[in-house]
## 1
Amino acid sequence: MNFRANPLNIEGCYSASLSSFEDLRGNFQKLYQSKKFQSFLPNFEPKEIYMTSSSKNVLRGMHFQIPPDDHEKIVICLNGKLQDVLLDLREGKNFGKSTYQILSPNNTNMMIIPKGIAHGFYSFEANTKLLYLVGSEYNQEKDTGIKWNSFNFDWHNSSPILSNRDIKLQNFSDFSIPEQWRINYVNKSE
């Protein structure tokens, strides 16, 4: 498995480009190999794998689960084009910092996301598909998020298509850092 991982401006977060093998039959692409991801997410083991398919102008996010069911994610764009957005919710100098990457199958197509990071995306094209490898199982009681327009990020669209759930998420200003993210994720450079 070959891929190039590039560190983002939020500690522990990476974008990556998966390579593919092509011949007259089509192409082959390995999406995950445990030992290749150990240096990025040392204890990562996928517990769930799922996929979203989104229409143009759909915004999903900003989602995360709180401890003890918080999770690491690897997300891979299989089709379409999207703006993938991360928001650091861990205590430290990067708390509230956001970053993004444009993902598509033919370019940068993967994000590596540690615990303590909210994740969301905006779909630029119809039938945009995003595959998720998630390090914990879904727990409805621990599943939450931050309202998409309540933190310092310009989505370049003031009226995206949203789910009822995402419309009702808490504002960033109302978010309280879980104790586990205070103890385990304080930035080492402080």
## 2
Amino acid sequence: MKHFEFEYGAGTMGADLPDSTDVFIPGVTVPDPPCIPEEQLEAAYRESLRHPIGMPPLSELAFPGAKVVFVIPDRVKGGEQPTSHRKLAVKYILEELYAKGVRKEDILFIISNGLHPRSTAADAKAIFGEELYNAFWPAGQIISHDSEDADHMVDLGVTGRGDPVWMNRYVYECDLPILIGHVQGNPYGGYSGGYKHF
């Protein structure tokens, strides 16, 4: 038997598995693809914001008085390091929005937890980092999506198959929704933020 420790919650959980178990270690069994060096991240983000794929840049979409809603994956998806995609993307997007006259008080962050537990203050601090957390949490501008609260939802009718379609009211009513996530496969199944964001 082989003993393994698996990431579980904020710690690990052990399991004894047969010697014949195939072991896949991310970054070891299959090497990680090349990444952008940390000192080049800011330039890469700014370039992406100036030239997004298939849509106008934020500098053309944002305007003074615009209501902006960010949709961010919950803590289950990781990304708590200072250079995480969500922390850097939000930082540079906020700069673009402010430059176009969007007011801080017109920005809302929704943690797209799906049916995971609602995020706590500690979760939000881990997700956003100290600076963003302190700027937006005390003002009630970081919330968790709550699909079980009808006041947070808008009924959009049914699909051709008769499936009901509900959408987050804040996203539905805003001028500019911004979804932060990635398209890399989730080791736990699915995609980070993918179906929950949609």
## 3
Amino acid sequence: ALSMGLVAKVSAGLYKVSSLWTIILFTALYGYFIGTIMPAESAASSVYAGDWGPPDRHFFYTPAELYAAISQWSAEGRAAYIQFRLSLDIVWAVAYSGWLATITSVCLRQAFPPGDRRRLLNVICIVPGLLDLSENFLGFTLVANVEQPIYFLAWLTAFATASKWSILVFAHFVM
């Protein structure tokens, strides 16, 4: 009951902030990231991360694959990875989650009457962003401690990544 109460409160909050204006705002932010920030980061990360790239570009990986890749990164590459995850990647998670949640909330508001439980589906749109933030925290912890592998955290990171991508696809279907 407590968790459903929390879901209902988050859902109501999303409905409260979702409007044509917030859709425009999040679409502009999302578009800016897609068009400028993420391509620049992709190019920058290819320098230190090579063909395998950063872990969050994969659907799933094992700790062995992760450590094989990140152990090849230079100290500067690891610092760049951590810096991006602690700065613009946080805004990126907010941008795409906000974009999904505001559009979905406006559409669900039109599709279902107040009180209909299907209106709670808007909450699923913020879950990938929360998993992305968790993945970032876990990822930069692993990268910062690459000399001392933490396999339990590596498995959690892989699970967060796979969950993020799976729920992100589902959230797009809901939208």
